[in-house]
Design goal:
By secondary structure, the chain is α/β, with parallel strands linked by helices. It has five helices and six strands, in the order E-E-E-E-H-H-E-H-H-E-H. The protein is globular, with a radius of gyration of 15 Å.
Length: 167
């Protein structure tokens, strides 16, 4: 059984999808690879992975949370799973290149394939693919759109600076 709920983020509505035990998708409305809502899914914001994710997204957008804790079970190939695990190691406020991500994922010669897997990340924001940038530091590719990527990175940079200043 799949459950879903909507979260009205500052960057647009987000669809949150979960099984009874784990999160399987977090998507901005209109993003590339946005799933089709299955009529068999039940809307239920109280199911733990969804309720926890909504609370954590609220705190993230308020600059009060840097990591997400809801259990995750995204669907993907073994290659995609390895890439998504590597993305999850990129710290709040940090960016790395697709080449570095490929190295961290164990595929140092495959930055383009890693980029494709990054684009199919079903757990946007929670698995922070917005932190992956071009080799020269330029913002490239983001299923949620480059304006959202820019806004997410600006939020993290602003909050990271505040955290450093407060010590």
């Amino acid at each position: 059984m799949r459950y879903f709920s909507w979260y009205p983020s500052p960057l647009g509505n987000m669809l949150i999808v979960a099984g009874a035990e784990a999160l399987v998708g977090v998507y901005f409305t209109g993003q590339k690879y946005f799933p089709r809502l299955d009529p068999a899914w039940r809307e239920d914001a109280a199911i733990d992975p969804i309720g926890r994710t909504i609370e954590e997204l609220q705190r993230y957008f308020a600059g009060e949370r840097v990591r997400f804790t809801a259990p995750r079970a995204p669907h993907g190939t073994a290659f995609q799973q390895a890439v998504w695990r590597a993305i999850a190691t990129v710290e709040y406020g940090e960016t790395i290149s697709y080449g570095e991500l490929a190295r961290r994922a164990g595929f140092p010669g495959s930055p383009r394939a890693v980029g494709a897997a990054t684009g199919q990340n079903p757990l946007g924001v929670v698995v922070p693919c917005h932190r992956i940038v071009g080799a020269d530091g330029r913002l490239t590719g983001y299923a949620g759109g480059l304006e959202r990527k820019r806004a997410l990175l600006a939020l993290e940079a602003s909050c990271a600076q505040t955290t450093l200043a407060l010590g």
